[in-house]
Each structure stands twice: as structure tokens, then as C-alpha cells.
Amino acid sequence: MSVVRTVEVAVDQATAFSVFTDEINAWYERGPYSWNDPARAVAIRFEAGRLLEVYEEGEPYEMGRVTAWEPGRRLAFAYRSVHLPIDGTEVEVRFEPIAGGTRVTLEHRGLERLPPDEYETWERRAWVRLMQVYADFLRGETS
Amino acid sequence: MKHLDSTLSALADPTRRQVVDLLRERPRRASELAAQARTSAPAMSRHLRLLRSTGIVEADVSEDDARARVYRLRPERLRALQQWLDSFWGGQLDAFKAHAEDR
Fold it and tell me: Most buried residue, A87, A124, A141, B85, by most Cβ within 10 Å?
């Protein structure tokens, strides 16, 4: 089972790739589930083959271990999050040329490896999170 | 906000969110859902039809009598997790696009 999202951006592939990676701290959305330790997180960045959640003090949290780094074309990392019951699901981001820009496709794979006995707990939590997303959306919609 | 699909608009209604909350506990009949949500049977019927059309909710297919039909959240494994992640990554990509085109 995987999650696939696509977005089209009006910049070339090389730019899209470098914005995605080098500038992730500038665009990464600060939502309720964006961070593993929201109270301490100060930044997110790719560094030395890892995607890190960085704190003022102490060791960063490794959100990803880079498995593919092909500038302008493809990026992949083994993903980890306190909001997920298993480590090492895979996130792949592909950059393809289209007229006037780049199509960016993000695929998150490996979710079927979730342990069956933990499934119900996680399903319930996921529903709670979904409700939060909807509630946030509604606030944005009406404000 | 184009990642916010039909599921999202289906759940943009407080009564339908309440239905999902009630069904998270256990399957229930439409009449029970209507009573709990303090809404009329025809109104609940419309809400349930919409929730079914998005695939969030399903009805017990063995029952032909609509009044006896039992509604439940669809049991697909990881469905909620998948939808949550879908929404999460969709939001991140929208933020990426906004930043990339606004530099």
C-alpha cells in the first residue's frame, strides 16, 4: 500500500530538486504532525545523507536516511516518524519535465508492513488526526 | 488546496463527522445514528448516502431492508492512516509549490 501525491510547479527540474532539498526548511509546513518533537524542533534539513529534525541542543532526530540522490530527477529516503508505527517505510520523490515546469510526484511506500496487532490502535489515532486535518481545513476555509 | 478531495468535503459537515466518530466505536443502524446526532431519518439517510459514495462508510449488504441496514466504517486495512498521510503529504507538496514559485 502506498500514498501518491503529485504537484506541478512552474520551475525547471534542477530548481525543483534543489528547492525541495536545500530549501526544505523554508517550505516544510509546520502542522500539528510535522514534527516528532514539536516543542523542541527548530529546523529540518538534509545533511550528510540524512533528513534531520534539528533541535537547539542535543542530537537531531533522523526522519530519513537517503537511499537515492539524483539531482533534478529523483530523491528517496527511508522514512521514520513518531506518528508512524514502523520505521523504514520509503518515500520517493520524482521530478519529471512538463511544459512550463516540473511534475513532482511523492510516493510513500511500505505501509502494509504495519504490524497487524497494532493496526487498530494506529487506525484509531489516524482517524483522530484526520479529524484534526479537517478541522484545520475548515478553520482556513471560513477565516 | 486541490489535495482536499471528496473525502474532505464529505467530512466538512459536523453531522457527518459525528457519524464517523460514532462508527469508530462500533457499527450502528441509521435510526440509531439519527437519534444520536439529533437529526431526522431522511437527513441522516442523505448523510449516509454521501459518506458511502466517498467510500468512508459501508452498509451491511446482506440486509435489503434499509431500516435494518447496519453501517460501519469501511474495514480496509490502513484506510485512515493512508488518508491521513495523503492529506499530510498533499499539504507539504502544496507548501513546496507555493515556495518554489514565489522565490
Answer: B85
